[in-house]
Amino acid sequence: MWPNGNDKFNETMILMSKKMIELSMIILNMLRNSYGIGLDIEEGNIDALFRMMKYSAPMSNEPVGNISSHTDRNFITLLCQNEVEGLLFKTSDDGEWVKVNPDPGSFIVLVGDALRVWSNGRVHAPPHMVMTCGEKERLSCGLFLCPKGDQVVEPCHDLVDDEHPPLFKSFIFLDYLHYASENAFRADTVLDSFAGI
Ligand SMILES: O=C(O)CCC(=O)C(=O)O
Ligand SMILES: [Fe+2]
After folding, report:
1. ipTM of the complex
2. CA of 12 to the centre of ligand 2 (A)
3. What does the alpha-carbon distance between residue 18 and residue 32 come to, in Å, rounded to a whole number?
4. Which of 10, 39, 103, 162 could pair covalently with 32 via S-S, beta carbons 3.0-4.6 A apart?
5. Closest-approaching ligand to the CA atom of 80
């Protein structure tokens, strides 16, 4: 059983997760630069979860729901997947559901709730879900960059002023995770009910 006895696989997964953490940090820094401000998210205050997901082939042409609509709770999620489509996300403009065209050579970047709070609502954390159909299994792997559980999540002070009042209250990340898991049935609006002002 992995990791025992599968050293090569182990090594590849550790390398992959390290590279995905690096890429997530680069993206966070690009965001900071685009606002011309210092990023008060330090590496020591961040956790990363690497997860591999397998959706078995539904063997039907009717789409089958695998993961229902939700926003991710973390700062930023990087996803890569095989060629089987299934991920859909909701746009901020008109709330349309859009299919993600799978490209095994690229990463999908999703903003999560913690980054939406940090940016004081400037970046959209899209509700997304997974629905598959057909005869092939879908494989994806995700790197979820999160605040550590004891971290305070709040709008970045440089992004709050008279014209941009805070849209969210400060909270401890772990408290939010608990609240979100107790309110999982409204997984894509739970941030607003927990911390929205
Ligand atoms: O498998 C995917 O592409 C997405 C999975 C997902 O949304 C999640 O694990 O939060
Ligand atoms: Fe997700």
Report:
1. 0.99
2. 23
3. 21
4. 39
5. 1
Contact 96, 90 (CB under 8 A): yes
Beta strands in the chain (DSSP E): 46-55, 60-70, 76-81, 87-90, 97-99, 108-111, 128-134, 138-147, 152-153, 171-172
Amino acid at 20: M
* Ligand 1 pocket, residue 79 CB under 6 Å: yes
- Per-residue pLDDT tens digits for 47-83: 999 999 999 999 999 998 999 999 999 999 999 999 9
7-195 maps to CATH 2.60.40.420: no
Q: Using the atom order of ligand 1, give the atom closest to the CA of residue 128.
A: 7
Inform me whether the pLDDT recorded for 25 exceeds 80: yes
* Separation CA 40–CA 30 (nearest Å): 13
